[in-house]
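ping. complex inputs:
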Amino acid sequence: MNSVLVTGGCGYIGSHTVLSLLEKGYKVYVLDSFINSSPLVIKRLLEMHDYIKFKVSENLHFIEGDLRSSKDLEKVFLNAIKDGNEIKAVIHFAGLKSVKDSFKEVITYWDFNLAGTINLLKVMNSFSCRTLIFSSSATIYSYSEEKALKENSLIKPINPYGLTKATIEVFLQDIYSCYPDEWRIVNLRYFNPIGAHVSGKLGEDPIGNPTNIFPLILNVASKEISKLKVYGNNWNTKDGTCIRDYIHVMDLAEGHVAALNFLESNSSRIINLNIGTGIGSSVLELINIFQDVNNIEVPYEISERREGDQENVVADNTKILSTLNWQPKRSVENMCEDGWRWKLLNPKGYK
Ligand SMILES: NC(=O)c1ccc[n+]([C@@H]2O[C@H](COP(=O)([O-])OP(=O)(O)OC[C@H]3O[C@@H](n4cnc5c(N)ncnc54)[C@H](O)[C@@H]3O)[C@@H](O)[C@H]2O)c1
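pong. complex structure:
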């Protein structure tokens, strides 16, 4: 089985994807600096024998390092060659992801996201590794009246974070255009990943105060916060609250493996794929489902609309369904149950 480098493999989506790769027998090299994750993720993965039939200790390799350091990246590629596992592909998660922080720390965001990716591509190229899956985001799309966003919908991000992602896509497209016979690239545009692995051993453990809705719901349900703020109930939607396309993090993880299989069995190309369920749920629907399946209360209050929020962000996922051997299998109920199990078993995350 081929070897894969996973940058940011200790983070929320990265850790679940590493598990999915290990389940399929891939040899996985993880590079992470722990700027937004914990070394305990690796320990947890090594303990998950029940879910992985292959020997995890032989297939999982970890290097602490920074994406922006060529030395750190070269070390991973050289280590893998020494192990007889030359890295053939990269799944690239490492980056900063808070829309709010990206306004306050704009230079840092461009440095981590764009400079980090340029560095990665330089080192990949020098090792003749030209297969890449990039973590892009629905944040790159412009405000739209469309019921569902297609890959060719207008791209016009409204925050520095989204701009870094859109710019990386432009950079990758340019590399492909200049070397069309060499690179195989998938930009996966994520919608709203939530939930956790069914075991409760892996989940989302944001450092600092979360701004995304699902970790906030978990914090309210566990009484760390008294009430959830719902930003606006006067949007033009079924119940007045915003609509999002929530996708179970394990479906997302399996989507990466499917994208990797697709690239491994095809010639050079670049392809943009929305990855979502195609089903929109309102904020109130999400809260109600969470309360019902977990039999727990999530007190909330309606507050003013937040600047920059969008009414309806749902994926048209027809392209990914017809391109990859993949489809989402888990419901919003599963997302809520699995996420709450993770919180109950790990009230302080990995700490
Ligand atoms: N979670 C979401 O809702 C979402 C949505 C769309 C896109 N994305 C993108 O998906 C990717 C993964 O998201 P996530 O939710 O798992 O985030 P995360 O913060 O949990 O994971 C990112 C990981 O990358 C590491 N990292 C960051 N900068 C690094 C660097 N310079 N060198 C080495 N390691 C570094 C962090 O320590 C962390 O482990 C990110 O690129 C994010 O922008 C996430």
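Residues 8, 10-14, 31-37, 66-68, 93-95, 97, 112, 116, 135, 137, 190, 193 surround nicotinamide-adenine-dinucleotide (CB under 6 Å).
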